Every structure is written in structure tokens, then in C-alpha cells.
């Protein structure tokens, strides 16, 4: 099969003389446009708040700065999450005040517990949903800070304060959304399609090259698969941006998830085929050329990702046709059968990705995927650590505030809550983010002091105020998109308007300003200290816990105590793979993929065993795996493989016998390599007995 026969054209190769400075100019233009949008959004929010004569209009400007993101999709998703979080947080404060109106200690403790619960939820959720849960936590602390006196006692006008603060925040969200929607058409769909196509193109090309060279590059294939798996895990934020930016994609979530799952399935099939290629005998390598010839020629191209972007619809039929041919291909040995089935699995995953890409780039295309809910148990320990950290940090600041009667203690508590809740899902990067935000706050406080006391007293119009704010926010917005100290400038841009505190009737009390500036820096610094004293799990520990939970699920599957539906098993492990930290090492990821592949092999072998009346032998072998006795399982499976090879059931069952022998051989390979790891935990029988 060649490109001409398949109806596909070879992608154009970039011209050697193409301009190299155009991308740099376009990147700089995008940064300048972002700085201008940030300025316009903040000024529009302030103008509306001033016109409505709200008490603290700067909260509207700060909310607009928070919502304003470089991507319009991320801004819209974050704006919607902030709206929900603001309303929920304000309602929580009203409820706490109603329950503990006369009990200061209970009110402060209840507020800290609420913030901890929101941090717990934020660490269980992902992307915009996680941000919304975090907002519900620290918005409650912010609203409560307005009604608390110098020593932290709840006041009686909490409802009015909650409505006012929620209104100011919502004004900022709406204004930022209007500005972004009117000035940025968005490119999240294009970027997501480009990344999916690049991943599919890399996998298809590298896998095709491995097939062509019969495993000669196996030493380089494992790091390549690890890098590709890391990129697949990083797709989640981009999918979230696309869902926020493009309305029709909200009905195609299952198709997008299927596209990313297809990439993982393709990597799993590549792994199976690579292991077979490495062990093929010389006479088998010549026969393996027939499998390579069935691999679509269009997918072997170095620039195959261009095909995935523009002709994904045509690739669906090409991949499915190759899968059908590989499944029925007559081969001589079980190893070649396993190679053909592994290649078919990789192409099946790529076909699934092509279907998702087509649904992504073509809004008119009908989508056949249905969103299914699968049972999934997340790791609760990181969320529990985050909740404890939030509780301890806020309670410590509350005690310090009550004891010292610090007039700006509420500000310190609010910013501590912002930092310790917002950065908890960042895990390993949480401390560095909190520290960078503390530095940015200090810089913003210094610049805001200069503007407030040296420039604003001579300003009498909103136009002058807007020009002054633009003179600061536009360059800071541009700097926030630079790779150097991004979080510092992002913090500066977000909190500058809040520290400047413009109002209809300005006051220039230097003591009060420096007191509040010190409070916000101390508050964010307390969040950084909280991450030092109660650190999150390291990426290695996080990956180890995910592997441990996956291994327990794997043993339950091997013991027959868990649903043996292939789709449910793979969907559950795809979710766990998405929870893997970005900095996971190659060996934990290889163990995870081995369990994914071994679990799928167990399910397929049980189905094949029914055909040959070998259910008892299969159950005995896999029960040994569940009990942590891989050596015993290897012995049973080797015996079964010999019996199947010696059986003569006619030509009709020849393919099924070869497929069963190939699956057993794959299970033996995995158990031989990872048997010590599979035997490391207590057996599932002991675990269930203790439960």
C-alpha cells in the first residue's frame, strides 16, 4: 500500500529558505496583545465597579487580572470556575456566620476546616474543576476577612458583605470574559489538534521504523515511548482549554478522551510488537516482512503528522483495513502471531485517535462515542496532606492574629489561604510557585506604593488612572509570558491592582498601606513556609503509590475478583496514567505499562481458554499471580503453551491456537521481567482477609 493507492498525498516539506524571524515576530505580537488585553480588562472592570459605586472596586480589577489568561479557552474555563467558586464560598461564609454568630473560636475553626475541605477536593479534581474548588475555599476566607474585627470576631452584616464581594468579583470575571471573547478568536482547537496529530505521527513513524528494521533500534525505543507517554499525560490542560473555548466540543468529551486513550493503546501495542521483534529468530524475521508490508505506507513518513492534521478521516479507513488484514493474516509461529496482533493493536489505537481528531477538526461530523462512567478510586493521601497543611497554616495565622490584634491580620490570613490552597495541586512545584508569588507580591507592593503616593494624587480623571495602570500592566503582562521568572511577573500582574486599591474617593494613608502591603507578603510567605513544613509527596512517592494501587487492582483482576471487561480495565488504567506526575521516571512508567498490558492479556486469555476448555488451567496460573507467586505462574503457563503447541485441532483453530500461544508468550515475557515487582506486595487474598 502506498500513498497514491491510499488516496493520500505526501505532506509538503518545509522550504529550506523559509523565513526564521516570522515566528519570533508573531510570538512577540501575541505577548503584546496579551498585555493590552490584560490592561483593557482590568480598566473595564474598574470602570464598571466605579459606576456602580462599589466599596472595594479593586477586587473587580484583581478578578479580571486573575481570569485573564494567554489562552481564551483557559480564561473562559477559569472564569466559569471562578463564578461557581465565588458563589459557593460566599454562601459558605454566610452559613458559618449563621451557625457560629456568637462563637469566635468556632467560627474561625469552621472557616479553616472549610478551606481544608476545599483544598482536599481541589487535589482530587483536575484542571478548571480543581481551580473552582480552590476558589470556593479562599473566597470564603476573603469574604470572611471583611466582616472580622481586629481580633477575629464575626460581624452581623455578613450577607451584605458576601453579596458585595461576590458582585465585585463577578464584575471582574464578566469584563475579562467580554474583552477576551472580543479580541481573541482563540486557537485551542488548532493547538490540541496539532499536538494530537504530532503524537500520532511520532508514534506511527517510530513504530513503522522499528518494524522496518526488525527491532534493531530497540535500545532507543524505550526512552522514546517514555517521552511520548509523558506528552500524552500533559494533554489534559490543553483539552480543558479547548472545552472552554469551543462550545461544540463540550458534547464531544468522550471522543477527545478516546483520542488520548488511543495513543496509550498504540504505545501498548508498540511495546508488545517491540518485545516480539527482539526475540524473533532469523527465519522469522524474513516472514515478519509480510507484517511490515501490511503496515500503511502513509504512516511510515517522517512528516506523517501533517497527514494526521489534514487527512485524519482517510486514515481511519486505512488503519482499520490494515487491522482487519493483520488479524486474519496466516503466520507460522505464535511469536509472529503476537507480532501481528501487537501491530494490529497499535493501529487500532491510532484509528481511534484519528476518529477523535476528525471529531475535533470537523464540527459537522457525527460522533459515535458515548461517555461511560467507570469505577475509579483516586489516591486520597495527597489530598489529605493538602487539607492538613491548609488547616494548620490558617489556624496558625488566626492564632497569631487574635493574640497580636494585628489590624491587617485578615489580609495576611486571606493571602495565606490563596497561596496554600491554590498551589496545593501543583505538588512538587508548590513551594517554588508560592515563593515566586511572594517575590512578585513584594515587587507589586513597592511599585504600587510609588504609583499610589507619587502619581495618583495628581490624577483627577479615570482616563489618567487607566494610563497609569496600563503603563505598569502592559509590560508586566508581556514579561509574564517570558520563560524567565514567569510566576513572579504573573503574581505582579494579578495583585498590582489590588495593592493599588483605586477607589472613587482615594485616601493616602501611608501607614495603613504599608501595614497591608506587609500583611499580603507575610500571608503568601506563610503559604510557602507551609509547603516547607508539610511538604507534598515527591513525584517518586506519588508514582510509587499509583503503582501500588494499580498492582492491587491487577491482582484482583488476576484472581478473578474484579470485572474482566477489557474496556473497563483499560479505562481505569488510563485514568491512573493521567494522575501520574509529569516528572515520572522511565522505570515506574514501564512497570505501569507492563501491568496495563498484562491485565489486557489476562482478559484475552480467559476468553480464549473457554474455547479450548482450559479455564481451570488458566485460573490456576493467574491465581498464582494474584498470590504473588510469579515463578509458579510461569511454570503453569509454560506447560499450557507446550500443550497448545502440540495440540492438533484442525486448520480452523490454528489461528486461535497461535493467538493463545502468543498471548501466553507475552505473559511469560512480562512475568519473567517484572515478576519480582509483581511479587513485592502482599497477596490479594491476604489483603481481602484483613479487610
Automatic annotation (TrEMBL):
Keywords: Cell membrane, Membrane, Transmembrane, Transmembrane helix, Transport
CC annotations in GO: plasma membrane
Keyword Membrane part of the UniProt annotation: yes
Main location per the UniProt record: membrane
Keyword set includes Membrane: yes
Cellular compartment(s): Cell membrane
Bilayer topology annotation: Multi-pass membrane protein
Domain of life: Bacteria
Gene Ontology molecular function, alphabetical: transmembrane transporter activity
InterPro entries according to UniProt: PHBA_efflux_AaeB/fusaric-R
Transmembrane stretches, start-end: 32-50, 83-101, 107-125, 158-181, 380-402, 408-424, 436-455, 461-481, 488-507, 513-534
UniProt protein name: Uncharacterized membrane protein YccC
Amino acid at each position: 500500500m502506498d500513498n497514491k493507492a491510499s488516496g493520500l498525498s505526501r505532506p509538503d516539506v518545509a522550504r529550506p529558505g523559509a523565513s526564521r524571524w516570522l515566528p519570533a515576530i508573531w510570538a512577540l505580537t501575541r505577548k503584546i496583545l496579551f498585555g493590552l488585553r490584560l490592561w483593557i480588562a482590568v480598566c473595564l472592570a474598574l470602570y464598571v465597579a466605579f459606576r456602580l459605586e462599589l466599596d472595594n472596586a479593586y477586587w473587580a480589577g484583581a478578578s479580571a487580572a486573575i481570569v485573564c489568561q494567554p489562552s481564551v479557552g483557559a480564561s473562559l474555563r477559569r472564569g466559569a470556575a471562578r463564578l461557581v467558586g465565588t458563589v459557593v464560598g460566599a454562601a459558605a461564609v454566610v452559613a458559618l456566620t449563621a451557625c457560629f454568630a456568637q462563637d469566635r473560636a468556632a467560627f474561625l475553626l469552621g472557616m479553616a476546616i472549610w478551606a481544608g475541605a476545599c483544598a482536599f477536593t481541589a487535589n482530587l479534581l483536575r484542571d478548571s474543576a480543581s481551580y473552582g474548588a480552590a476558589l470556593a475555599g479562599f473566597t470564603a476566607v476573603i469574604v470572611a476577612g471583611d466582616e472580622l474585627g481586629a481580633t477575629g470576631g464575626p460581624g452581623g452584616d455578613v450577607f451584605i458583605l458576601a453579596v458585595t464581594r461576590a458582585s465585585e468579583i463577578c464584575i471582574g470575571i464578566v469584563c475579562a470574559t467580554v474583552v477576551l471573547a472580543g479580541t481573541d478568536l482563540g486557537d485551542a482547537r488548532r493547538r490540541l489538534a496539532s499536538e494530537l496529530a504530532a503524537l500520532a505521527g511520532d508514534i506511527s513513524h517510530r513504530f513503522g521504523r522499528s518494524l522496518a528494521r526488525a527491532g534493531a533500534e530497540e535500545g532507543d525505543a524505550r526512552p522514546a515511548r517514555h517521552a511520548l507517554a509523558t506528552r500524552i499525560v500533559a494533554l489534559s490542560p490543553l483539552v480543558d482549554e479547548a472545552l472552554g473555548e469551543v462550545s461544540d466540543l463540550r458534547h464531544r468529551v468522550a471522543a477527545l478522551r478516546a483520542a488520548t486513550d488511543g495513543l496509550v493503546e498504540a504505545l501498548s501495542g508498540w511495546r508488545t510488537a517491540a518485545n516480539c521483534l527482539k526475540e524473533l529468530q532469523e527465519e522469522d524475521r524474513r516472514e515478519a516482512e509480510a507484517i511490515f508490508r501490511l503496515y500503511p505506507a502513509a504512516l511510515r513518513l517522517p512528516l506523517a503528522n501533517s497527514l494526521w492534521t489534514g487527512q485524519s478521516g482517510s486514515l481511519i479507513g486505512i488503519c482499520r483495513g490494515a487491522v482487519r488484514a493483520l488479524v486474519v493474516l496466516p503466520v507460522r509461529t505464535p511469536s509472529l502471531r503476537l507480532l501481528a496482533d501487537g501491530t494490529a493493536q497499535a493501529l487500532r489505537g491510532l484509528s481511534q485517535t484519528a476518529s477523535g481528531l476528525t471529531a475535533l477538526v470537523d464540527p459537522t461530523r457525527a460522533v459515535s462515542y458515548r461517555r461511560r462512567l467507570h469505577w475509579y478510586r483516586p489516591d486520597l493521601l495527597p489530598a489529605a496532606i493538602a487539607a492538613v497543611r491548609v488547616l494548620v497554616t490558617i489556624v496558625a495565622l488566626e492564632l497569631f492574629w487574635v493574640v497580636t490584634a494585628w489590624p491587617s491580620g485578615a489580609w495576611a490570613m486571606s493571602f495565606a489561604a490563596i497561596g496554600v490552597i491554590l498551589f496545593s495541586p501543583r505538588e512538587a512545584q508548590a513551594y517554588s510557585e508560592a515563593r515566586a508569588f511572594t517575590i512578585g507580591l513584594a515587587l507589586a507592593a513597592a511599585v504600587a506604593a510609588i504609583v499610589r503616593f507619587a502619581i495618583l494624587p495628581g490624577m483627577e480623571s479615570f482616563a489618567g488612572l487607566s494610563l497609569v495602570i496600563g503603563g505598569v500592566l502592559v509590560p508586566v503582562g508581556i514579561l509574564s509570558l517570558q520563560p524567565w521568572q514567569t510566576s513572579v511577573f504573573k503574581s505582579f500582574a494579578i495583585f498590582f491592582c489590588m495593592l493599588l486599591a483605586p477607589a472613587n474617593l482615594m485616601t493616602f494613608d501611608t501607614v495603613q498601606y504599608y501595614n497591608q502591603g506587609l500583611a499580603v507578603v507575610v500571608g503568601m510567605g506563610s503559604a510557602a513556609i507551609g509547603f516547607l513544613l508539610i511538604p507534598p509527596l515527591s513525584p517518586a512517592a506519588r508514582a510509587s503509590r499509583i503503582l501500588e494501587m494499580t498492582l492491587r487492582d491487577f491482582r484482583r483482576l488476576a484472581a478473578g475478583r474484579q470485572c474482566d471487561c477489557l474496556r473497563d480495565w483499560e479505562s481505569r488504567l488510563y485514568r491512573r496514567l493521567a494522575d501520574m506526575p509529569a516528572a515520572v521516571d522511565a522505570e515506574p512508567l514501564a512497570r505501569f505499562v507492563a501491568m496495563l498490558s498484562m491485565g489486557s492479556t489476562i482478559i484475552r486469555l480467559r476468553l480464549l481458554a473457554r474455547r479450548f476448555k482450559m479455564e481451570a488451567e488458566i485460573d490456576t496460573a493467574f491465581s498464582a499471580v494474584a498470590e504473588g507467586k510469579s515463578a509458579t505462574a510461569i511454570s503453569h503457563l509454560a506447560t499450557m503453551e507446550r500443550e497448545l503447541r502440540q495440540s492438533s485441532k484442525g486448520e480452523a483453530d490454528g489461528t486461535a491456537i497461535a493467538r493463545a500461544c502468543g498471548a501466553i508468550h507475552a505473559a511469560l515475557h512480562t512475568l519473567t521481567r517484572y515478576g519480582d515487582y509483581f511479587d513485592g506486595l502482599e497477596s490479594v487474598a491476604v489483603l481481602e482477609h484483613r479487610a
